[in-house]
Amino acid sequence: xxxxxxxxxxxxxxxxxxxxxxxxxxxxxxxxxxxxxxxxxxxxxxxxxxxxxxxxxxxxxxxxxxxxxxxxxxxxxxxxxxxxxxxxxxxxxxxxxxxxxxxxxxxxxxxxxxxxxxxxxxxxxxxxxxxxxxxxxxxxxxxxxxxxxxxxxxxxxxxxxxxxxxxxxxxxxxxxxxxxxxxxxxxxxxxxxxxxxxxxxxxxxxxxxxxxxxxxxxxxxxxxxxxxxxxxxxxxxxxxxxxxxxxxxxxxxxxxxxxxxxxxxxxxxxxxxxxxxxxxxxxxxxxxxxxxxxxxxxxxxxxxxxxxxxxxxxxxxxxxxxxxxxxxxxxxxxxxxxxxxxxxxxxxxxxxxxxxxxxxxxxxxxxxxxxxxxxxxxxxxxxxxxxxxxxxxx
Length: 394
Prior knowledge:
The chain is built from 14 helices and 15 strands. The protein is an alpha/beta fold. The longest helix has 19 residues, at 136-154.
């Protein structure tokens, strides 16, 4: 399994790769991870995730300083490193999680050796451009080049997947690929604890990278618009390059005393944050699925989310929460207020709906589907709850 981002990185792609790897080991498979080293230390050793042991081949890496944590394997060494690892491991299948560096090298060398290749896309070029320091006027050209590079690498794969049908359509549109499978990242709902007890306070939760495309500034502005009588509190879990800027914005908006910036937390602390929250808010405009939203739903939280990219696959307007026009703080505040003012019995309807919708994203179904792809079998995409037509009104 090749990944340009893997633990200890905290993001959806890294978390999916970690859960997929550990889930496969639990089913009796031998799993090797090829990923950039998280520090100057590089080499091959074992690592443990969710109680399962994988062999990690950590490649010599450099820090990308415009980004707050990103490290990358050296591009001009990747084919040599990939060849060395493949000849040593002799895998039955190579599954790359990104086409950028590691996936490119592994796919080139696996193709030469006749090894089955599966590719999964979690990446939108637009998400990284803010960290390239490229002038705005050449970013569109750079996006075009990025999609062409994706086409070349994914074109080597026997099967290509991405987390949702919306994301699959998106990938097909910009690369010209056909037959991309929509396979949910999956979630083990048993790891999360719903709480249906009566609320004692109004808590809104956001979990994710604290970066520009997440549009957390819109969420802060929405909190400032809520009636003071609601005494709503916001918790932001995660880290990123916008951390200090958003703290400053909260101060400017006069809500610093009601906003907690928790930064990175342990898995147990994260689960506790979900359990004690009243609402989960996801204002992001660049989600190919959103594992954090699924975790919130497994915790029986109603969700208020931007009507953008793949979020409507998870948030069914009026059923388990509400969608709002991306970037519209007034609309977001309206949806949050609507839920906070609900009687408990109406809130419980939304909470139960979240549990029902996320049940279709069981990690075991995801593991079974990938096992079939690894064996070269034809698969039907797992059926997850389809998003109904969106009829939100401002």
